Amino acid sequence: MTDKPIATVARTNEILRRYDLFARKSYGQNFIVEPGIVEKIARLCRADETTAVIEIGPGIGALTEQLARIAHQVVAFEIDQRLLEVLAETLSPYSNVEIVNQDFLQADLEGWVQKLKQNNDQVVLCANLPYYITTPILFSIFESRAEIPVITVMVQKEVADRFAAQVSTKDYNALSVIVQYLYEVRVVMKVPRTIFNPRPEVDSAVVQFEKRIPERIAADQQQFFSLVKGCFKQRRKTLLNNVREYLQDREKAVRAIEGAGLDLSARAETLTLDQFLDLYEQICQLHAESCEKP
Ligand code: SAM
Prior knowledge:
Helix content: 25-40%
Bound molecules: S-adenosylmethionine
Distance between the termini: 59 Å
């Protein structure tokens, strides 16, 4: 039995039975029971024998096992204490895996990445995320200063679509613009709900974030992100209405929008990243005193 991958239905059921385990909904536990899928995710995450992988939520070790086969080192954060003895057994053939019993949101990601970079050329992140905290987890990674060039995660399909959404589509929103400013975003695999135990109510997708070197940089990133959020605040309102509210000044809003070569009656969802940057730069010019130059 032990030579079968953990992600097989037979092996997963055997492990759950032997440890008298049930999936804990409050921790978003849906275990993958399709070995082909975990192998493919591990192959996609850009790990190799010179790479360390950080995983969030190893569960009973299905994905961890495949990562351990490819990568030089794996560090996996698991919140559920019940899984520690399970993982100690299922991952015992792999000496390159370290399990950390901690809520990932409390982890010192930057410190871990620095430490792992001492023995590895690069550190990537790969996970089948617990859906109840997908966005907080991803934003804790995006906002940390940890050097992680590629992030490959399984999330709810709708969430993946929003991150990767193109301009002028229904899914395009402030989150899409902000994330695409920081990363190249691609949905690399669609995953049906049928490959999980227990089966969730939604389909999933694997989304990959690859750090991009932006051609244009906002002088103040947080200020730029808050403008983008302001532009989408009332999705059905015009850009002029949203920018006016954001700036608390109609005249400045008109000057900034026109200065950026945009239509006053445009809607935020029709603006490309470059157009948001044009608008931001116009606002910076109007507020020259409060904006640092890049
Ligand atoms: N990787 C396994 C797989 O693919 O079969 C399990 C994935 S399951 C969707 C999510 C995992 O994340 C569970 O093991 C759960 O206990 C763990 N988890 C939930 N919240 C967490 C948190 N805040 N920090 C670390 N792990 C967490």
